Amino acid sequence: xxxxxxxxxxxxxxxxxxxxxxxxxxxxxxxxxxxxxxxxxxxxxxxxxxxxxxxxxxxxxxxxxxxxxxxxxxxxxxxxxxxxxxxxxxxxxxxxxxxxxxxxxxxxxxxxxxxxxxxxxxxxxxxxxxxxxxxxxxxxxxxxxxxxxxxxxxxxxxxxxxxxxxxxxxxxxxxxxxxxxxxxxxxxxxxxxxxxxxxxxxxxxxxxxxxxxxxxxxxxxxxxxxxxxxxxxxxxxxxxxxxxxxxxxxxxxxxxxxxxxxxxxxxxxxxxxxxxxxxxxxxxxxxxxxxxxxxxxxxxxxxxxxxxxxxxxxxxxxxxxxxxxxxxxxxxxxxxxxxxxxxxxxxxxxxxxxxxxxxxxxxxxxxxxxxxxxxxxxxxxxxxxxxxxxxxxxxxxxxxxxxxxxxxxxxxxxxxxxxxxxxxxxxxxxxxxxx
Length: 435
Ligand SMILES: Cc1ncc(COP(=O)(O)O)c(C=O)c1O
Fold this sequence. Notes:
Blueprint: H1 15-25, E1 36-37, E2 48-49, E3 58-59, H2 60-76, H3 80-83, H4 96-103, E4 110-112, H5 116-127, E5 136-140, H6 145-157, H7 162-165, E6 166-169, H8 180-190, E7 194-200, H9 212-221, E8 225-229, H10 241-244, E9 248-251, E10 266-269, H11 316-332, H12 334-355, E11 360-362, E12 374-379, H13 383-395, E13 398-399, E14 401-403, E15 407-411, H14 419-434
Parallel strand pairs: 2-13, 5-6, 5-7, 7-8, 8-9
Antiparallel strand pairs: 1-3, 4-10, 9-10, 11-12, 12-15, 14-15
Bound molecules: pyridoxal-5'-phosphate (PLP).
């Protein structure tokens, strides 16, 4: 791989630049950036990577973890299931302690398995059981399309349809994000019609972090099941899932968890369902009681807890980078990461507000508890010109992403972005928008 040189994107010294450097100098987590591979542009300059909400950077330790498994497979063949350096049969269990820590869950409530949408379907098989009247699902109006496809296809599977059975909660007219009180009011109004409330931890488009605890409580109070899509929350915001008491949650590991494209996802099933044999589930041998899994008993007897929802044996090569990344999270600690994240994203917000008034509308809430790392910027220009800014940004070495028709998403990641990165990126954004 080509080496990046430090080539500066900064356009001259000024107070803000000096402030950024001072913040970096005082940052106890600054050293972690060195533990990641940073992509370079065609001139060999390190890009300013603000795309971690889409695909996290590669931890340098990931290659060694994957190579270890390849070496053990070469050396041991099938014996690796028991004799690999990290035996493959319980391999995925190594992820559980750190995942539980990130989610505020009990270890038996979490499992690394499959990918997000697959897990969402598996969870809905168990926790979306519509009846004659309790047969509606509530989601947010701009839910990630895959979630909506999954929900609508589950409705159809049960002979229901989106027109009658899907409630899509939109922000109030003239507002960009959802209000907790509006969601609660609607949940209470639907009451016994509502079978499932499915909400994001952090909304993918706006970056809004929902106030999950009262929302989950409202859903449970009226007797609905409550599920969460934590794709943009895990490794980003701090959660206490066990205490907040949803029925299930699902996530992917390629965003803030830096486990690589298509990495193994995960699932949370609350402890109160650990031995719930009443609910149907789609079963497979990996969910069967570990003690007699290899006795090939024809009758399925699930493992207690989230692992009982597994179907197949774990994908070792896509779980290895997750273990590498989780080890970094364990060392850095989520409270310290969150503290830096709040400072970093706040710094980005203030710079944008100071330098780009009228040109950019930040649609992400400004209160720290209502957002994670990501800022979603509405570029106040007609569509083709707005998108050109994003293209200029990419050409100038700033990686974010674009959501049609006019939203630029940038995430300042506390593990590998610095205050100087933020300053430089806003500098480039300013040039692109003032051009
Ligand atoms: C919020 C959200 N939900 C679901 C998905 C789909 O994930 P997967 O392709 O892993 O099923 C994504 C992917 O980016 C996402 O951002």
